[in-house]
Structures are given as C-alpha cells and as structure tokens.
Design a protein that fits this description.
Largest sheet of chain A: 2 strands, antiparallel
Number of strands of chain A: 2
Distance between the termini of chain A: 39 Å
Structural class of chain A: mainly alpha
Number of helices of chain A: 8
Helix content of chain B: 25-40%
Strand content of chain B: 25-35%
Structural class of chain B: alpha/beta
Shape of chain A: globular
Strand order of the largest sheet of chain A: 1-2
Largest interface: A-C, 56 and 66 residues
Chains: A mainly alpha (215), B alpha/beta (257), C mainly alpha (184)
Order of helices and strands of chain B: EEEHEEHEHHHEHEHEEHHEE
Oligomer: heterotrimer
Number of helices of chain B: 9
Radius of gyration of chain A: 18 Å
Chain lengths: 215, 257, 184
C-alpha cells in the first residue's frame, strides 16, 4: 500500500513532511511524559516487531500470499502515538537502510498508515469493544487498512491536477481519482478482512504473553 | 553417502564458507567444530538442501542436491524423509498445537500407519510422555530441543544434522544426549563451538577455521596436539593465571555448557 | 561524523531537486551522473534498483499507455519522465546506502541514533529468525504442507516474535535503569 519515491509532487510531500515533523515531536514528548522509563525500549522493540510482522506472509489458497501491516495491533495494544512513531521508524528504516519504500513519500505514508490508520483502529476499538470484544478488534484491523488506502488513493489521485505541464500532461503520478479510488480501495477492502482477523488473533496472543511477562 | 566438493558461499558479500570439501560414509558419527560465525549453520543448511551454495557441488547418495533440483516432488519427498536438520533455535521448528501433533507431523505426512505408537515411543525416549497435550510454545528451552529432536526421529531419518544441540541443555541432559546419539543407527553430524564436548559427539572431527575454510578433518587427537591451529580457529585462548605469588600464562579453554 | 551529515543533507537536497526538474533530458543526464558516481558498483546498484521499481512502474506505465491511447495523447514524454525520475531517485538512494553510514550521519541526535540502532539490530535478529522459521518448515515438510500447517507456522512465528519482543523491551529497560540512563 505504501507509495514509492518519484510519484508525489513537492507540493504534496513538503507540506506532509512539515506536518509530520511536528507530530513526531509532539508524539515523542507525549510518550516521554505519559509513560515511564520503558517507553524508548518499547518503541524500538515495537518498531522491530512491526518490521518483522510485515515480513510474515499470510498464505492464501492457491499459493499467493498477503502481508499484514500490524498497525491496528500496535494501536489497540500500545496506543496511537506509539503506533505512529513505530510505523514511522519502520518506514524510515526501510527507506534509508534497505532502499525499500520512499524517502520523499515517507511523511505521507507515515501520516496515512501510522497516524490515520492507528487512530481509526483505536477509535473503532474503543467505540465497539463494550458491545463485542472480538468484533471490535476485527473492525479495528479492517479500518486500519481501508482508511489509509482511501487517503493514499486521494493523495495519488490529485497529483495530475496538482502538477502537470503546459500541455496538461502529468508530471508525477498520472492517474486521477476516477482511477485511483477503485484501483487502490477495492483490493484493500478485501485485504482489510485478513488484517481484521490478524488483529483479533494477534491481540489475544499478545495479551496472554503480556500477562506471562508481567508475572 | 555425502560428497561435497569446492563449496563456497557468501552472505551479503561476506564469505561464510570457502572451498569446503569432504565426504561422509553411511553410519559415521561426525563433529563439526568451529567458533561462532565460522559458517557451521550455513554448512548444515546446504547439507539440508535449504541454501544453494554460490559454487561447488553437493551429492547425496550420488544425487546432486540444491534447492532448485529439490523442487522435483519425488526427489524432494525422498530427501526430506531421509535427511533431518535440528535448527539451533528449536522454536523455529515448532508450530503444531500440541506436543503430540508436533511429533506426529512427519509420520502423518509420510502416511505411516503406526503413528500413535511412534509418537508415544519417541515422547517416552525424550521424557515428554506426560506433556503430550501441552502447547509446544509453553515448554522450557531444553524440552523444546528434545521435542524438536523427537519430531525429527519419528520419521526414521538416515542422516541427522544437529546444530549446537547441547547449547540449551543442562549438563545431565547433555550427557544423556551424547550417549543417545552414539547408539543411534543413523549417520549423525553434530556441530559445536565447545572444544571439550567435540570428542564426545564423534571420533572424526571437521574443523571450520575463522577464515571459513576446513582446517582439519580426522581424529580429534591430531588436532588437539596442535596449539597453533587451535588458536587460529579461535577455540582456545590464553590469559594470565595467578597461583599465589606465581603468575604465568598458557592456552586453555573455559567450558560454559 | 560531519562528513556523513553533509552527505545526508546533500542526498536529501538532490532527491528534492530530482522532483523539481521535469525535462526527461535533464532527468536522463542526472541518471547518468549517478551511474558515473557509482563507479564499479553501477551495474549491481542498477540491477537492484530496477528490481525494486519494476512491479509498480510497469503497472503504472502500462496503465498510462492504455489511458493515453484511449484519449489519443502522445504518451512517451510522460512515460520517460516518470520512469527516469523514479529510477534516478532509487539508484541515488541505493548509492547513498552503499556509501554512507546512516547511524553516523544521525549522530547529531543521540536519542535518535540510539533508538534507530536498537530498532535496527533487533529487526535484523528478527529477520534472521524469520528466515529460520521459513526454512524449518521447508526442512520438516516431506510433502507440500497443508494450508492449515502454513497458517500454524506463521502464527507460531508471530507469537514467538511478540514474546521475544516483550522480553527484550523489558530487559533493555532494566539495563538502562541499571546504568542510570533515566537520571530523574
């Protein structure tokens, strides 16, 4: 789902970086104030954890695989700011240490997946968990995939309008909203179902493990 | 049974194995000795057909083996049934819901008829008979290692590759493992970085040096008699010893496991 | 450390520049310049870059070709522009990774260096373990594993990573406290 380099105009990614930089600063300060000394080690380890969870392939019938993002899992269990910072660090690691992903697109990806994805997941979980715990986790996983996908589709789809040459030809991503919305959103509506199941199973496992580690 | 010739392999540009050559006859008990990072695990993964070496050839019972050739179902089935690798981290091998299912996994895949008897036999040998219903994840490190070994042995392998099997075991279990392996009918290749344990796992010792080359192949005594090669392989060290007023230094090893 | 910081800044400025230039000719010249800078690593870096960008760029390019055909627009300048730009930025990024130690470039912020260093080393050890989990299933499978077994293997790996992650976070926090890292 994340956007690679070279498809976003500076009119898009520079403001996104400005917004993101402010949020990273606020997030780090909040984490330091609200939590105890464990915050930084937890952030580093959760970053590594979400990095490797993204590597785990979920087999599908027929031999293909999908990869989970684990964002709702982080947001539900460790909070929105922790999830946002961990996802940002994973994206930075992938872009600057492995050349996978995008340097210019990093802020947009972090905002879409890390902030919107985890905030939506956390909100859905908070609202629904009094009604049905399992359903709440499932919906949290689903929105954590679908809402960022919607945002990514919007950002990509406005590129031709934002940046084009005098002949009206696109300078960056070449398709408009009429194409990006169905092309990006529809597959993720389905992928989100898998993420929903994983968020439910992952949280159940994680809560059992945390109990074990707490004793 | 096994012939390796001119095997070299690099990981991300750094050499892991350089020009490795040896052969193994059926029924042999061998030890692969080397410092951490010498390439022992890589060599075992090549022998198990999991990694394709950059250069060199590997033949198992005369048949050339590499991950691509193992895509052929008939060869894959025979090779995977006959060759078993115990990973250094046994957690990597355990994924079934119970200890029972873990041991039964291989026999079920083979379509054997005496699955229950096999599971109970190997669980008994490994002292796991009262935990057959437990989740493998919840076992201790040593129990996991024994469970992984039981799961491999339940297929009656002909070649058993063991990666640092003593690392997670207490001294009593290690002693038991040494005796147990000596009595196994199959060919066994055991790796260790522990010089004092090496002779226990077999009389023929292969030593991987820090330059990732095979620097010794033969009886352990000849190798132990050569302190320079021991230091070169990073298997012994020297430091000052104080006995009252007397101070001296000599080569020796410390045993951890 | 100053040198690495300067290289990081120069790299980021060049990437920004590559999104401000739109003439395919200039983008092609920039690509040639990066290839020349890569020296003997050029073929390897080019191969890696092409492999990374191929799936997405191919899909976008073919899609655009179809769109342009439907609307009777000449597609070539746009296609060259988009693909040259993406290739130049990706190649430059791989060159930066090959030549500059990012951790030293970030030395201006000890917290960031520490955080990224710990996350990176933990991620690397997880990645090695992940490879072992995958190989162990191959090694143990005499016939093709059932879908159910592959699910179980993935779930066991995920549970193991979470367990190790929680334990490692706690240990690191204890170690930091023991060293008086949190002075307050």
């Amino acid at each position: 789902m994340h956007i690679p380099d070279g498809f976003l105009s500076p009119q898009t990614y520079l403001p996104a970086y400005a917004l993101c930089a402010g949020l990273w600063w606020v997030g780090l300060r909040r984490l330091r104030r609200e939590l105890d000394a464990d915050t930084l080690p937890y952030l580093a380890v959760l970053t590594a954890l979400s990095f490797v969870l993204m590597m785990l392939a979920l087999p599908l019938p027929g031999g293909t695989t999908v990869h989970a993002a684990g964002i709702a899992l982080l947001a539900v269990n460790f909070g929105v700011w922790m999830a946002f910072l961990a996802v940002s660090l994973v994206l930075a690691m992938q872009a600057l240490l492995f050349g996978d992903g995008g340097v210019t697109a990093l802020a947009v990806n972090a905002l879409a997946m890390g902030l919107v994805g985890s905030a939506a997941a956390r909100l859905a979980w908070r609202l629904l968990s009094p009604l049905h715990a399992t359903a709440a986790l499932f919906v949290a996983g689903w929105v954590s995939v679908v809402l960022p996908a919607l945002l990514v589709a919007l950002v990509l789809g406005i590129q031709p309008a934002l940046a084009h040459d005098t002949a009206g030809r696109p300078l960056f991503f070449p398709f408009d909203l009429a194409i990006t919305l169905p092309a990006v959103l529809l597959p993720h509506v389905l992928v989100g179902l898998g993420e929903g199941v994983l968020t439910w199973l992952g949280t159940t496992t994680l809560q059992r493990l945390r109990l074990r580690h707490a004793t | 049974m096994i012939e390796l010739a001119g095997i070299s392999h690099r990981y991300n540009g750094a050499p892991a194995l350089v020009d490795i050559q040896f052969s193994i006859a059926a029924g042999e008990k061998l030890v692969l000795l080397g410092a951490n990072g010498a390439g022992k695990s890589t060599l075992l993964k090549i022998l198990d057909g999991l990694i394709h070496p950059d250069t060199g050839s590997y033949r198992y019972k005369g048949e050339p083996i590499d991950p691509r050739r193992l895509k052929a179902p008939a060869l894959n089935r025979r090779f995977r049934a006959e060759v078993a690798l115990l990973f250094q981290n046994p957690d990597a091998m355990l994924f079934n819901p119970t200890v029972y299912d873990e041991i039964a996994f291989g026999p079920r895949q083979l379509g054997l008829t005496d699955i229950d008897a096999r599971v109970r036999h190997w669980a008994g040998v490994m002292g796991l008979d009262n935990m057959l219903d437990r989740l493998p994840f919840s076992l201790s490190g040593g129990e996991k290692q024994k469970l992984a070994l039981a799961a491999l042995l339940a297929n009656d392998p002909q070649l058993l590759l063991l990666d640092e099997p003593a690392a997670a075991l207490d001294p009593r279990s290690t002693g038991w493992l040494v005796d147990f392996l000596a009595d196994l009918p199959c060919t066994v290749l055991t790796t260790t970085h522990n010089l004092s344990l090496a002779p226990e796992f077999g009389s023929r010792v292969l030593v991987l040096g820090e330059d990732h080359r095979l620097i010794h192949d033969g009886p352990i005594e000849a190798f132990l008699a050569d302190p320079e090669r021991l230091v070169a392989a990073n298997l012994v060290h020297s430091h000052r010893h104080r006995h009252g007023a007397l101070e001296h230094r000599h080569y020796h090893l410390h045993d951890w496991s | 450390m100053k040198a690495e910081y300067a290289w990081l800044s120069l790299y980021l400025a060049t990437v920004l520049l590559a999104t401000l230039v739109h003439d395919p000719l200039w983008l092609a010249l920039g690509l040639v310049a990066v290839l020349l800078l890569s020296g003997r690593q050029a073929p390897a870096l080019l191969r890696r870059s092409l492999r990374v960008i191929l799936p997405f760029n191919l899909a976008v390019s073919l899609g655009y070709l179809l769109l342009a055909h439907l609307h009777a627009i000449p597609p070539w300048e746009t296609l060259l522009r988009i693909n040259l730009r993406v290739l130049a930025i990706t190649l430059l990024t791989f060159l930066f990774i090959a030549r500059v130690n990012l951790f030293r470039a970030l030395a201006f912020s000890p917290t960031l260096t520490w955080l990224l260093g710990l996350a990176y080393s933990q991620a690397m050890s997880f990645a090695r373990a992940h490879a072992d989990f995958r190989l162990a299933l191959v090694s143990r499978s005499i016939v093709r594993p059932r879908l159910r077994d592959r699910y179980r293997a993935s779930a066991a790996a995920a549970a193991w990573f979470m367990d190790k992650g929680l334990a490692s976070a706690r240990e690191t926090a204890q170690a930091l406290r023991a060293r008086g890292f949190f002075g307050d």
